[in-house]
Amino acid sequence: MANQATVTYYHHSGFSVAVEDTLLIFDYWRGEDGALPESCQIRVHDFDGFKQVLVFVSHDHEDHFDEIIYTWKFDAPVTYIVSDDLPIGKRGKRVKPGDEMEIGGADIRVFSSTDKGVSFYVTVHGLHVFHAGDLNLWHWREESTLREIAQAEKDFYAAMAPIEHLPVDIAMFPVDPRMGGLYDAGANYFVMAVKPRLFIPMHWQGRPEVATSYARKGRTKYTEVLALTKPRERAELSFEEHELHIHVFTAPRDPLAGQPGPQVQLDVYTPGDPFSDTDLPVKM
Q1: What share of the chain is helix, strand, coil (3-state, %, to 5)?
Q2: How far apart are CA 11 and CA 17, in angstroms?
């Protein structure tokens, strides 16, 4: 298994994961009207040193797909892996749930979603990475009927079934406060059923306190939870057999000017009471 990886957060559900000579980019979006500051956007220098770049688009919702991905200039070979709900003519290998492929040593498995599109499971240099797209328990519990909630749960558990047995080192999964009460039900189930080594909340609708609160209360004996909430914030990860070491770097105002900002080190969660670290619920 690869010993190291670097995860960089951009906006909403957009991340990159660098593993050795391969760069994975998931659901990159600059925000409404390109609101993400230019200094925090992906630029040409971000591709330096990589032998291949894989760009994933889970579905055609505007907050998961940005046309700018087709303007990037690469020295390394680039492959776009896109959900088949994107309009015909959008470049890339079009995929649907159940598809499997190998690209440049990266094994890619495509799973379903409970909204549009797909979710992605990528094994590269021995590291297992999962990006959920819009896979979640979309129960809307305070608005939906009991029948609608029951159907949402049935759909979610069916979508999760083929994922639950897979090893996952890094998972990016929605924690969406718009659902109100039990907004984190899908995330909680994923953490308990899959037991990823690292869980990163995403899709938190511009409310970083939702992600940071979940990071405090969502961790378990088997899973560390990390909130990356600032554009260009990155985590350098070191995996060992029974330990995970995390160094978090917050980018300065202009990532090209000066050195990275303050460093925060998180030690691996030590065995013990998985509910010892608690916090007040997020106010909806």
Answers
A1: 20, 30, 50
A2: 14
Q: Mark out the alpha helices in the chain (DSSP H runs).
A: 146-160, 185-194, 208-217
Helix (H, G, I), strand (E, B) or coil at 45: helix
Sign of CA dihedral 197, 118, 65, 47: positive
**208-253: per-residue pLDDT in tens?**
999 999 999 999 999 999 999 999 999 999 999 889 999 999 876 5
Looking at the whole model, is its pTM more than 0.85?
A: yes
C-beta separation of 233 from 250 below 8 A: yes
- Parallel/antiparallel/unpaired status of strands 22-26 and 52-57: parallel
Domain edges within the chain: 4-266
CATH code of the domain made up of 4-266: 3.60.15.10
Compute the distance between CA of residue 174 and CA of residue 169 in angstroms, rounded to an integer: 17
